[in-house]
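--- STAGE predict ---
source: upstream dedup step, 1 unique chain passed
mode: sequence only
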Amino acid sequence: MMQSSSVVTATAVAVLANGLRRGDAALLQRLVLDSAGSPIGALRAVAVAFAIRGYEKAVAAVLRKTGLQRMPSTLAAMLSLFGALRAIRVVSGKEAADRAARLFAPGVQLLGRWMGLFLAPPLAALDGSLSALPSYSSGVWMRTAGLMLSGWAATCTFAGTVAKRTKVAGTSGAPKSVQAVVASPIRLGAGSGEVDQTEATLRSWMLITAAGFLGHAIVPLAYQGWTGRLCQLGTAVTSFQLADKRLPPAVKSSLHPLVVCAVMTNLASRGLGSVVPPWLGTGRGVGDVLFQWLPAAVSGLGVRMYETTDKWYDDAGNLRCVAITSCATAAFSVICTTIAASHPSSPLKIPAPLGLPLTNRSVMSALGIEGSLAIGPECDPKLAVASILITGCIGASFGNSLLQSVVADTSPLVRGLAMGCSAHSIGTAALIADNDPESAAISSATMCIMGTAHTLLLNLPGVVPMIRAMAFST
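--- STAGE serialize ---
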């Protein structure tokens, strides 16, 4: 332990010295100032993010008071934001609605950029969830892997087939000129010199993280709780940015930056020892604080949905295709996963603590967590997040090949629907990396609609009891 601590300290010194040598300290101001040296842009983004978070909490309070707490507040907030913008468009026109959407844009982009970081806490604590499981044989784990792979293939094929059959003849998707909103990174000002804002943010956090680890090694024991928190936060932010910015697109399609972030944060938390508050679970850890921002990030997707309506909502044929495909795929995924994981004659039958989390594998992580909570305590949200992430990576790597060979239709509408319904945000990111903004725009809206249908399905009377009865049947 002492040797590894010395290595970490030496590395921190080297990173800090290198950063100071190349002048990265001057970039620290770029975390709060724009290119004109004003904090207005950053303050506006943070203020809107807090407003969205406050709105989601207000929606949650209303749901509790009205007895509708089974409806996830994140989903209600997301859909109500989308509905409000569409209502403004109907009443006051497109220009007024677009202006309202632009008011939200700084906060939505800020939350969207860091959504992966907000998802990292349960994944970084995954080892704790796995250690709490009974000891399973290698055969059980192999069947679990087989269920994940075959489940994704079945979901993607089903979604692609339904989309192909329900799309309007001759429809190819959105107009060629559109750009996927999900591809737009946050920019709080381009800054000066040759270092763009994302690079300046990365270098600044590398400097902060190195200073945190060095400080943790030299401060008295009484203050190591605070320096340890800084180390945990810095490791999470820096590793997420490094993986996102430095990994080649081909590597990121199978090794998502969220995986890198979770692994590095887990290792850092272990190395810091018990003097630092636990990363997640006490309500006061760094992971708890980051995780508490996830509902706001999901709520902001309502604005993203509005910004892509010209690609799926405004055309009646496309809307019908998207609605039918998303709802049908949500039901197909839940039913088939439950049967494959639980039916006594299924060759992929696995224990309930592994099978229940897989029920949520085809939706974006935030709503998958909500789905896990709806199913019950044996459905660990951390395992659900892991299954969702792995499914997304599988879809990003093999989705195009499957659609070409099995569905035989790779039009933007079909491709976007199939990827959004089976590989959620990671599949959408892969479409962006493939320079396919039309499909990515449809996929970004589809993953929200698919998640909505999935959540509503789990809240229908009798659905969760049926899932649990099958899972625990002998």
